[in-house]
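Our platform keeps sequence and structure together, in a single record for each protein. Nothing more is needed to write down the fold, since each code stands for a local backbone conformation. An entry from our holdings is shown next, in its original layout:
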Amino acid sequence: MTCKHLNRLEKDLIRKKVKVRFRGQAWGRDCREWVYFDCFFSDLEETIRRFDMDGEIIKIHTHLGTHDGQEHGLVCSKCNDGIMGYHPNSTKQKGDTAITYT
């Protein structure tokens, strides 16, 4: 499970049966527990507010790599945990299993 700062969001995604695509150290030792979900996050600022997350340590993370993946989600700068979905500009095709999480 992710840290206490992201845990409520992770539990909500699991409760809503959003598929986990990957869990573990995504980018090396500077990452603790990163969970990649089969979804697009539509409004992460609202997600931070809705889950009453600390905006000083919870940061929006966006990466649009050409060779090393595309992701968009939240990272806890205190615990090095992350919850990621697909990047909004991802090449993921419509009709796949990904949902939009609001």
Q: What stands out?
A: The longest helix spans residues 7-15. Residues 7-101 form one domain. The chain has two helices and six strands.
